[in-house]
Design a protein that fits this description.
Elements lengths: L3 E5 L6 H14 L6 E5 L2 H11 L4 E5 L16 H7 L3 E4 L2 H7 L3 H13 L3 E6 L3 H5 L3 H12 L7 E4 L13 H19 L8 E4 L4 H8 L6 E4 L6 H17 L4
Length: about 250
């Protein structure tokens, strides 16, 4: 899979704003070879999908329920996302885990539902600042991987240090390399050789200024971009940084 640059718009953008941003991304995506994905709010998903139809930019949801339908007021199913034009879905984001009390088993059930509906899941894992300071970051992430991913997982993993999301703080390249290396080893330990095909994105204060250095870290297969994805110029600059690295990478 090529490097994936995914934009999580979170709870931002009314319909006109979302359509305008999608048009800017579509126009700027020409000539970019890495995979591009945007995840707008549910209210704008169908409209953004229409704007991006026929373009290289994919569309995803920011969450889904584990049931296909039923009495779940305020929720949305994976099939509904698919019907609205999504082909991806972000699951287990730290803001869902923290603000909505989602546990690993809940995330795992959502992954199964998303896969059954034909969506590719991006599952997020990451530690808090307290967990890192107490030296438990790998323990926490290891448990999240084991609890959140089904045994036949066929999606993407995203490491997001919770203490870096929306704070402007970014881990050092060495810290990112250590964690992504651990995640790759842990995937292999838990799921065997098939886990080698699972891309690992980095998420947490990714912006044009640090994109090249973060994307160059071993085992970083792309980026899950938050705030910078709300500005088309910044989001596309991150994608171009990924392209530039792919062109300079040594051939196997």
């Amino acid at each position: 899979m090529p490097t994936l640059i995914a934009g999580n718009w979170k709870m931002n953008g009314l319909l006109a704003e979302a359509e305008s941003l999608a048009r800017e991304v579509r126009e700027g995506a020409a000539g970019i070879s890495c995979a591009l994905l945007v995840c707008p709010p549910f209210t704008a998903l169908a409209a953004v999908a229409r704007v991006l139809q026929g373009s290289p930019v994919a569309v995803g949801g920011q969450d889904c329920h584990w049931e296909a339908s039923g009495a779940h007021t305020g929720d949305i199913s994976a099939a509904m996302l698919r019907d609205a034009g999504a082909s991806w879905v972000v699951l287990g984001h730290s803001e869902r885990r923290g603000e909505h009390g989602e546990i690993d088993e809940t995330v795992r059930q959502k992954v199964l539902a998303a896969t059954a509906a034909g969506l590719t899941p991006i599952v997020c894992v990451g530690e808090t600042e307290d967990q890192r300071q107490s030296g438990r970051e790998t323990e926490v992430v290891g448990w999240q991987i084991e609890g959140s991913l089904p045994k036949d997982f066929a999606g993407v993993l995203a490491y997001e240090p919770i203490w870096a999301i929306g704070t402007g703080r970014t881990p050092t390249e060495a810290e990112v390399a250590t964690m992504h290396g651990f995640i790759r080893e842990e995937l292999g330990r838990q799921f065997g050789g098939a886990a080698d095909a699972v891309p690992i994105l980095y998420g947490g204060s990714v912006k044009p200024e640090n994109a090249a250095s973060l994307l160059a870290v071993p085992e970083v297969g792309g980026a899950l971009v938050g705030g910078a994805s709300l500005r088309a110029a910044d989001f596309l600059a991150i994608a171009r940084a990924a392209d530039a690295l792919s062109k300079t990478a040594p051939r196997a």
